[in-house]
Structure formats: structure tokens, C-alpha cells
């Protein structure tokens, strides 16, 4: 099973593909140096296989590579960041309380 995360900027989303079949997406919008992440979804037929986790990891890696901060409005992405605090720095310190995220220095 070949899983990859692909940016599709003309559609404003990242797609996660398994063997070239789109099985999930994360919508986004970039304004200046901030990437807003309002929504993710994964096809229920591939649920429980780590596809959503791979998708979010790919999105956050792309944000880091581009030097962007993120606004994780999507609850799945917020939960991922809580479980992987090494990505907390992608959320600006002043935005963390809005999303219920602990500051990195606590």
C-alpha cells in the first residue's frame, strides 16, 4: 500500500492518496505566513489505518518547510498537535490559548 500526501493548491487542499486513490483531504488557506486548517476528512473505508495521521503529519511538515504558522481549527489536527508536542511551535504562542493548546514552556 503506497500512501502519499499531495498538495493540490488549486483546490485549496492536501490530499492523501493510497495507490493513487484519493482517500482523504485537509482543506487549507494561506494568508501571508499563516496556514488556516479548517477541516480534514478520511474515507471511512480506510479508517483505523493511520491514514488521517499520515495526512496531518504531511500537512504540518509542509507548513514547517514553508516557514508558516498554523491555525488548527480542525479538531483532528488540534488533537494531533496535542499528542505530538514537537509540532506545537507551528501554532503561534499567542494563538495557542484560542485552540486550547498548552504553551511549549509549561
| Unreliably modeled segments | none
**Strand arrangement, largest sheet?**
1-2-3-4-5
Instruction: Let me know the average pLDDT.
Output: 94
Q: What would CATH call the class?
A: Alpha Beta
Annotated CATH architecture: 3-Layer(aba) Sandwich
Number of domains: 1
State the separation between the terminal residues, measured CA to CA: 40 Å
**What profile does the largest beta sheet have?**
5 strands, mixed
Strand content: 25-35%
Radius of gyration: 13 Å
Compute the number of helices: 2
Q: In percent, how helical is the residue content?
A: 10-25%
Q: Structural class of the helix and strand makeup? A: alpha+beta
Report the principal-axis shape: globular
Can you describe this structure?
With 106 residues, this protein is of the alpha+beta class. The protein is 23% helix and 33% strand. The protein has a single domain, classed as Gcn5-related N-acetyltransferase (GNAT) (Aminopeptidase), CATH 3.40.630. It has helices spanning 51-65, 75-83, and strands spanning 3-8, 13-18, 21-31, 34-42, 69-71. It has a 5-stranded mixed beta sheet. β2 (13-18) and β3 (21-31) form a beta hairpin. The protein is globular. It starts with a strand and ends in a 23-residue tail after the last helix.
Amino acid at each position: 500500500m503506497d500512501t502519499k500526501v499531495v498538495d493540490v493548491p488549486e483546490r485549496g487542499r492536501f490530499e492523501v492518496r493510497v495507490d493513487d486513490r484519493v482517500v482523504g483531504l485537509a482543506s487549507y488557506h494561506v494568508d501571508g505566513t499563516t496556514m488556516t486548517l479548517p477541516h480534514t476528512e478520511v474515507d471511512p473505508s480506510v479508517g483505523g489505518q493511520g491514514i488521517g495521521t499520515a495526512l496531518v503529519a504531511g500537512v504540518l511538515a509542509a507548513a514547517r518547510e514553508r516557514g508558516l504558522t498554523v491555525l488548527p481549527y480542525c479538531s483532528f489536527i488540534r488533537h494531533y498537535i496535542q499528542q505530538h508536542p514537537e509540532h506545537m511551535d507551528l501554532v503561534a504562542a499567542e494563538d495557542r490559548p484560542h485552540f486550547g493548546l498548552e504553551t511549549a514552556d509549561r
